[in-house]
Amino acid sequence: MSDTELVGVQKTLSPILRAKALDNRLPDPILGDRYAEQAMRGIDPDYDKRRFGTSQLGLAAVVRAKAHDDWARTFLSDHPDAVVLHLGCGLDARVYRVDPPATVEWYDLDYPSIIELRKRLLPPREHYNLIGSSVTDLAWLDRIPRGRPVLMIAEGLVPYLTEAEVRQLLTGVVDAFHAGQIQLDLVTVWAWRTSKWDPTLRKYGVRFHCGFDDPAALAHWHPWLEYVDDAPMNDSPVLMAKAPANVRRMYRVLNLLPGMKRSVRIVRFRF
To answer: Between the CA atoms of 6, 105, 98 and 187, what dihedral angle is there, to the nearest 10 degrees?
Structure first.
């Protein structure tokens, strides 16, 4: 199976994976994910031989991944008995980058076709489980052990769901576990409403379905849920420090556009 056999939003894993693969070529990479190159070659052996094939303009997505990784490491350091729910995992190698202890039970979840790709392109490991399911079909929660702290990570997922689906997901996870942390990224209402003109999304025939100008408002959906903080993406200091000079200049220009600088927010909640 290659990325040509994926459909709709599933195909958006390719540009994100490509950005992580190209980051690993930098002298001082942001993420340093050696598995990204391996997986990218597996679905598109010539990905870097086409026009703009080595462009590093996607590094903001790499910054997003690093923020999620850093938060995950901190949580698992404090909760070494946790269960991790990595939702909409795509071909991301987070479990290998974070490298949790054997006391952590990790679950990667995505559409069955993507899980089959993961099985072919990425190695197995102990205490690491794969679930092929739509994230919105919460029957998958019945397969997760309870009575342990939970870390839910949803990178690049929420904007493709409706607000009702996001609410059902968050409240469902909070109801199922006694304590934990939820990490996700949100786009603003402006980014959601203009997504139908985004050239990358148009290429894959998809668009966003929700947006939030106040990330903390999601905490109002459940009495146990508490907003903690958020991290920058398009104006991240890490991006401006490590990206090639031409990419830094491009993001500085883009961030001058109204609404662009914080069009994506990486957000953390606890309960």
So the answer is: 50
Cβ(2)–Cβ(39) below 8 Å: no
User: In this predicted model, what pLDDT tens digit does every residue of 227-240 receive, in sequence order?
Assistant: 999 998 999 999 99
- Tokens representing residue 249 in the block: 């200049």
Contact 140, 108 (CB under 8 A): no
Spatial CB neighbours of 159, under 8 Å, sequence gap ≥ 6: 185, 186, 187, 191, 192, 195, 208, 209, 210, 211
Query: Which of 151, 118, 158 lies closest to 36 in space, CA to CA?
Result: 118
The whole-model pTM stands at 0.92
Q: Please write the tens of the pLDDT for every residue from 114-128.
A: 999 999 999 999 999
Cα(217)–Cα(227) distance, rounded to whole angstroms?
A: 8
d(CA 204, CA 182): 28
Distance of alpha carbon 128 from alpha carbon 126, whole angstroms: 5
In the DSSP assignment, the letter for residue 17 is H
Q: Taking the CA atoms of 139, 145, 150 and 151 in sequence, report the sign of the dihedral they define.
A: negative
**Separation CA 88–CA 154 (nearest Å):** 6
CA angle 211, 196, 40 (to 5 degrees): 90
* Cβ-contact 91, 122 below 8 angstroms: yes
Which of these, 14, 36, 39, 2, lies nearest to 121 by C-alpha position?
39
List beta partners, residue 153. 86, 183
Question: What is the SS3 assignment for 140?
Answer: helix
Question: How large is the angle between the packed helices 34-43 and 112-121, nearest 10 degrees?
Answer: 110
Average pLDDT over residues 171-189: 97
Tokens of 104: 């952590």
